[in-house]
Write a structure and sequence with these properties.
By secondary structure, this protein is an alpha+beta fold. About 20% of the residues lie in helices and about 50% in strands. The protein is built from 2 helices and 6 strands, in the order H-E-E-H-E-E-E-E. The chain has helices at about 10-15, 45-60; strands spanning about 15-20, 25-30, 70-80, 85-95, 100-110, 115-125. It has a 6-stranded antiparallel beta sheet with strand order 1-2-4-5-6-3, covered by helices on one side. The chain starts with 8 loop residues before the first helix and ends with a strand. About 30% of the residues are buried.
Length: about 130
């Protein structure tokens, strides 16, 4: 990740900004624009899945050693409400850290309302 909080790769290209990442938790900010919408005019589910995966991966990396690379092995996203253009935030935290597997949870909020929840298992590649 660059010093400006923009992650490398796909998430950075999408417009993700990491606000905080420490001790098994992370918070990312994202601005939903028209290019992130589906034909119904709401936030595309694939974008939301990318956001929660990015936030949780960042949280896991903040709780592991530099030699451990988290790889998503399972991701469940619950879409609670449609997202719309404007800012949103994803907060993630490690729930259980094992030697080889780590479980993480994330909440997505927009305008003070929960619009998504996610749970993921990450394999720690040594």
């Amino acid at each position: 990740m660059a010093d400006d909080g923009v992650p490398d790769g796909f998430a950075g290209r999408l417009g993700v900004h990491v606000e905080a990442a420490d001790d098994g938790s992370a918070r990312i900010a994202f601005e939903v624009t028209d290019e992130h919408l589906n034909p119904a005019g709401t936030l595309h589910g694939g974008v939301l899945a990318t956001l929660v995966d990015t936030a949780m991966g960042t949280a896991v990396r903040s709780a592991t050693g530099d030699d451990d690379v988290p790889a998503t092995s399972q991701l469940t996203v619950t879409y609670l409400r449609p997202g719309k253009p404007g800012p949103l935030a994803v907060t993630a935290r490690v729930r259980t850290k094992g030697e080889h597997l780590t479980v993480c949870e994330a909440e997505v909020e927009q305008d003070g309302t929960a619009i998504g929840h996610a749970l993921a298992t990450f394999a720690l590649l040594h």
